[in-house]
Design goal:
single chain, about 180 residues, alpha+beta, Arc Repressor Mutant, subunit A, three-stranded antiparallel beta sheet, globular
């Protein structure tokens, strides 16, 4: 996919006063416009910005945004029973190899440990470490701060509509074409 950039635009209002605003026009290397009404483009733009912000705000803990969400999942769900890799795969809709990579990095960062389960030697329970419990509150604060920043200026109804829309789009993409 060619590199892309956003351009600014200058417009005049009805009274002839100049107003500057950002027009979200995505252009490719050849300068061709890509539709600003393309939902997939906006999902990619939001995803990129959120990943960049999350990774920057969590760097002091040595984990990424995705790892922070997985950690929260392990801690919260571990309160009601054992959590396994397959639970993470299902919850985040990730492949086995992607999940393995994330969990290995969390292990390397001393955030989780894998413990054998007596009933089945193949299963490894995911257990948060002491370090995970120490950093979890601050990590979750950073996640909340990013959520507040991202939804600033939106009403609770708009946020709810976005969540419903995103769920429906995800469901649509799960269906065969």
């Amino acid at each position: 996919m060619p590199a892309a950039k956003f351009l600014s635009d200058l417009t005049l209002d009805i009274k002839g006063k100049t107003q500057y605003h950002i027009v979200r026009i995505l252009t490719n290397k050849r300068g061709e416009n890509v539709s600003k009404d393309d939902c997939g483009m906006w999902v990619n733009v939001l995803s990129h910005k959120l990943k960049k912000r999350m990774n920057a705000t969590l760097s002091e803990f040595g984990i990424t945004g995705v790892q922070a969400h997985v950690l929260r999942f392990i801690i919260e769900n571990g309160k009601s029973g054992p959590v396994y890799q397959r639970d993470v795969e299902k919850a985040f809709e990730m492949s086995r190899s992607t999940t393995t990579g994330i969990l290995q990095l969390l292990e390397k960062s001393d955030v989780i440990a894998r413990e054998s389960v007596p009933e089945d030697a193949r299963l490894k329970r995911l257990v948060p470490t002491v370090r995970a419990r120490e950093i979890n509150t601050r990590v979750q604060e950073r996640i909340r701060d990013n959520e507040v920043q991202m939804t600033r200026g939106l009403s609770p109804g708009q946020v709810q509509l976005f969540l419903e829309t995103a769920r429906q789009m995800s469901s649509n993409l799960d269906r065969a074409p």
